[in-house]
What does this fold into?
Amino acid sequence: MNKTLIALALTLTIGACQTPQQNAALECGAAGAGIGFLTCKLLGGSDAKCAGWGAAGGTLGAAGCYAYSNHLEQQRQQLKGHENELDARLTYLRNVNQTTAEYNANMQTQIAEITAHNDATLQLIRTNKVDQSQLKKQQELMDKMLDDANKSLASQRESVAYMQQLQATNNMHDPKLAQELKIQLANLEKTKQQTAALAAQRQRI
It folds into this structure.
């Protein structure tokens, strides 16, 4: 048993879950699946057992780190009463866009981890080495993660619609504001793509 690697794996797992809440998304889950599997194997677990451990670590971590929707609502509350002030709109959009960019980057990392984990799980299925109860738990956890991702996507759509409504009511012609609005739409499109990628991974198992 390589104690150095075990310590490293555990350190990475803990570190991934110590990010500030305002970073808002999937940091814990991104590292959880792959590192959970590694830690289990280093502790002498079987492939079947470790596949279940990795899935549980990743998806439960993701659920614990979802603060994205709450963050968008907090930003909207801060803008309330200042909707017709250019600086307030810019601050709102910049904060939302930064949070969404972080969300998308972390979700992309997590999807890569889940893809690798699913590859290993499918190999176990093909060789009849997977524990069916653990596989069912993995499926249930991924269902929960996909549900959370869809809720976050819905919140982001509401945020875009909110800004579009404000612009329709009081269209502020400012190049910086126009740029942030473009970024917001691009972020939304990226989130749509990644939510679809997560759904595709769920369909694999």
User: Anything to note?
Assistant: The longest helix spans residues 86-126. Confidence is low (pLDDT under 50) at residues 1-35, 56-65. The two ends are 31 Å apart (CA to CA). The chain has one domain: 3-204.
